[in-house]
Amino acid sequence: MVQKKFQRILIVDDAPENIAALAALLKESYMIVAARTGEQAIHMAQKTRPDLILLDIVMPGMNGYDVCRQLKQADGTKDIPVIFITALSEAIEEANAFKIGAVDYITKPFQPLVVKARVQTHLNLKMKTDMLEALASLDGLTNIHNRRKFDENIAHEWKRAIRNQSPLSLILMDIDYFKHYNDLYGHASGDECLKKVAAGLNETLQRPNDFLARYGGEEFVAILPDTDLKGAEYIGNKIHGMMDGLNIPHAASKAADHVTMSLGICTVLLGHVNPSPIQLVEAADQLLYQSKVAGRNRFTS
Ligand code: GH3
Ligand code: MG
Ligand code: MG
Ligand code: MG
């Protein structure tokens, strides 16, 4: 696999000459960041999200084992591969490194060619894992997130909303008379329509933490963190405006002359006694149903 210089390696060692030697070896092919203490390493790992960490074990303060354990416990850093590079050469020390989650173990003094080869192997694996992870979260037709990723994201945002005492809104959407659309224009046109709607929704949701997924066949769902009901209703209106703008003809719709959607919008402020994410989705589904009954092409909140 061709290596370009977009992968980042964090080198952690208390001895500057060790950092310099490894950096000299790797800087031609990779971006290098460095840390001289365990504490600094954790901070750098969270901030720069490297693709690989080369980690010394014996350091004053936090040692390499502690650093690795802490990295493996945090969501943002747990999937970064860690290679120990250390003067410790006992089998028990090496075994311990793998037990706490390292992918490789290299003893000092190291063979430069071997370090390079092992680093490349683990970076290739990391790239493939990242690619698979991305694919596993995407919907094949619309290229937006899928239901699996939605479940993951709502769990994550739920915790964050509790921690920050911030409102969390959910919008459930369902295309109106979509069965008629397929019947009239054909299934392939139906697929095209779903793609256009997904792209339109993606553009409508602007905030970095806003999340959009295809929830099911012709259903979409948006998670709006730090957004109260008023804010969510504003987005609901924007979505209807976007659909009017798309103006996809739908001669068999009883709601309009173009493709429209019905929405259910709800907001929670999580406190001591909390519902579950599933209950929020069910509530949004009830509201969506009311939008359908009331004539479609509208939202209920
Ligand atoms: P309502 O206004 O009550 O929502 O009516 P509807 O016809 O949209 O609802 P219904 O749930 O009866 O039908 C949903 C339709 O969506 C049926 C199904 O064929 C279509 N559909 C689901 N997934 C896909 C897809 O991936 N591609 C296409 N082309 N159609 C799909
Ligand atoms: Mg050391
Ligand atoms: Mg439906
Ligand atoms: Mg529908």
TrEMBL record:
<dbReference type="GO" id="GO:0043709">
    <property type="term" value="P:cell adhesion involved in single-species biofilm formation"/>
</dbReference>
<dbReference type="InterPro" id="IPR043128">
    <property type="entry name" value="Rev_trsase/Diguanyl_cyclase"/>
</dbReference>
<dbReference type="GO" id="GO:1902201">
    <property type="term" value="P:negative regulation of bacterial-type flagellum-dependent cell motility"/>
</dbReference>
<dbReference type="InterPro" id="IPR029787">
    <property type="entry name" value="Nucleotide_cyclase"/>
</dbReference>
<dbReference type="InterPro" id="IPR050469">
    <property type="entry name" value="Diguanylate_Cyclase"/>
</dbReference>
<dbReference type="InterPro" id="IPR000160">
    <property type="entry name" value="GGDEF_dom"/>
</dbReference>
<dbReference type="InterPro" id="IPR011006">
    <property type="entry name" value="CheY-like_superfamily"/>
</dbReference>
<feature type="modified residue" description="4-aspartylphosphate">
    <location>
        <position position="56"/>
    </location>
</feature>
<feature type="domain" description="Response regulatory">
    <location>
        <begin position="8"/>
        <end position="123"/>
    </location>
</feature>
<keyword id="KW-0597">Phosphoprotein</keyword>
<dbReference type="Pfam" id="PF00072">
    <property type="entry name" value="Response_reg"/>
</dbReference>
<dbReference type="GO" id="GO:0052621">
    <property type="term" value="F:diguanylate cyclase activity"/>
</dbReference>
<protein>
    <recommendedName>
        <fullName>diguanylate cyclase</fullName>
        <ecNumber>2.7.7.65</ecNumber>
    </recommendedName>
</protein>
<dbReference type="GO" id="GO:0000160">
    <property type="term" value="P:phosphorelay signal transduction system"/>
</dbReference>
<dbReference type="InterPro" id="IPR001789">
    <property type="entry name" value="Sig_transdc_resp-reg_receiver"/>
</dbReference>
<dbReference type="GO" id="GO:0005886">
    <property type="term" value="C:plasma membrane"/>
</dbReference>
<dbReference type="Pfam" id="PF00990">
    <property type="entry name" value="GGDEF"/>
</dbReference>
<feature type="domain" description="GGDEF">
    <location>
        <begin position="166"/>
        <end position="301"/>
    </location>
</feature>
